[in-house]
């Protein structure tokens, strides 16, 4: 049935080439989908990638029963050797129904940050603990996990999530930072967190229930996760994932968004941008520099999940590609030539998979640019 409602799109200049490329032969009758398509930006296909099947690592980072290794950092190269940092814990996960003080609540609970090295990016040798949990009563006494590495002017900086005991549903985690003169340590932890959740949300009642709120507050009023610091425009941009008190499920899934805090020095202080949140979707932070701006792989949650976005100023992100099945918890290869191609840094890196509910292991992913579609034996354009 054809509607007699006026359905033209007079406010947009309709070029013949764009109409032809979209398969629109009668601009007097435009569906809502066609109107949205006419509003799509002209970004080309250079950002579009497809990911291949992830593959297990060899050596010490191969799957090990009873051991959880997850959330690999970016990979860096030093003296012809690759380095990676990751969360490591032992034993099964009990959730919030067990002994909260002693049992693991999540796979990333009771973690320390370990590191490993490799000559080829496939076979890895575990080197030991880089950053351990703090003393009882400190802000990081329960778990330190989900680390990210930044190499800058001969020094190394590890940012990571922290939790203080007891690990309750309403616990508000923070972000810590350690630095070293060498990727092999020793690492010097800052005594206080560099980032904390917003303090303008209000819980409803005393029940340990994160969905009962009187006021939700900022997008990061409950948790700040997945820190990643990039040197950018003479400053240091700390990108992070925010979780809001009373988090909802929307038409895009979980209400997860990203923010950024900026400092003049790698050790801080970091000040949250007034433009936060800088994304309306996403999960783990995956950001890199390209062409004077910052690119971000947005995954898992929200209405703009599974997209690559780019901001010329590191703040105002726009979608440049919509992709399929990106790996979980990507650790980028920071040794890549990022200016060679907008997605060169995604050619290979590390990720983790869930072997089961209790144990995760680190794998290697790869991708390729896809700019045309052909059948076997068919020549492309």
Characterization of this structure:
It is a single chain. With 381 residues, the chain is mainly beta. The chain has two helices and 27 strands. The strands form seven sheets. Strands 3, 4, 5, 6, 7 and 8 form a six-stranded mixed beta sheet that branches. Strands 1, 2, 25, 26 and 27 form a five-stranded antiparallel beta sheet that branches. Strand 19 and strand 20 form a beta hairpin. The N terminus is likely disordered.
Short overview:
Helices cover 4% and strands 38% of the residues. It is mainly β. The chain is globular, with a radius of gyration of 23 Å.
**Given the helix and strand composition, which structural class is it?**
mainly beta
Write the element-wise H/E pattern from the N-terminal end onward: HHEEEEEEEEEEEEEEEEEEEEEEEEEEE
Tally of helical segments: 2
Q: Sum up the overall morphology in one term.
A: globular
What is the straight-line distance between the termini?
38 Å
The overall strand count is: 27
Q: Residue share in helices?
A: under 10%
Low-confidence spans: 1-9
Radius of gyration of CA atoms, rounded to a whole number: 23 Å
* Overall average residue pLDDT: 94
Percent strand equals 35-45%
The major beta sheet can be summarized as:
6 strands, mixed
């Amino acid at each position: 049935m054809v509607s007699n409602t006026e359905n033209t799109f007079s406010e947009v200049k309709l070029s013949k080439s764009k109409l032809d490329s979209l398969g629109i032969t009668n601009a007097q009758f435009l569906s809502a989908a066609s109107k949205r398509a006419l509003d799509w930006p002209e970004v080309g296909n250079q950002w579009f990638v497809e990911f291949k099947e992830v593959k297990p690592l060899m050596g010490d980072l191969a799957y090990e029963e009873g051991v959880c290794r997850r959330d690999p950092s970016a990979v860096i190269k030093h003296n012809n050797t690759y380095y990676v940092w990751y969360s490591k814990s032992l034993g099964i996960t009990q959730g919030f129904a067990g002994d909260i003080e002693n049992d693991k609540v999540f796979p990333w609970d009771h973690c320390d940050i370990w590191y490993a090295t490799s000559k080829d990016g496939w076979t890895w040798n575990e080197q030991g603990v880089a950053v351990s949990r703090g003393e009882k009563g400190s802000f990081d006494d329960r778990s330190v996990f989900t680390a990210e590495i930044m190499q800058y002017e001969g020094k190394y900086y590890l940012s990571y999530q922290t939790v203080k005991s007891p690990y309750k549903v309403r616990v508000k985690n923070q972000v810590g930072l350690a630095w070293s003169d060498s990727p092999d340590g020793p690492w010097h932890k800052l005594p206080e967190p560099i980032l904390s959740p917003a303090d303008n949300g209000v819980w409803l009642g005393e029940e340990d229930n994160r969905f009962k709120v009187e006021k939700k507050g900022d997008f990061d009023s409950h948790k700040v996760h997945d820190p990643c610091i990039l040197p950018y425009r003479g400053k240091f941009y700390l990108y992070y994932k925010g979780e809001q008190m009373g988090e909802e499920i929307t038409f895009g899934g979980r209400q997860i968004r990203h923010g950024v805090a900026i400092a003049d020095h790698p050790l801080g202080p970091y000040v949250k941008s007034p433009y936060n949140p800088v994304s309306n979707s996403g999960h783990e932070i995956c950001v890199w520099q390209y062409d004077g701006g910052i690119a971000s792989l947005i995954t898992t949650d929200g209405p703009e999940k599974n997209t690559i976005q780019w901001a010329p100023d590191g703040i105002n992100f726009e979608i440049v590609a919509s992709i399929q099945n990106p790996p979980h918890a990507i650790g980028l290869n920071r040794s890549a030539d990022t200016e060679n191609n907008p997605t060169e840094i995604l050619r290979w890196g590390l990720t983790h998979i869930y072997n089961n509910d209790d144990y995760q292991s680190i794998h290697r992913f790869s991708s390729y640019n896809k700019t045309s579609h052909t059948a076997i034996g068919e020549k492309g354009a």
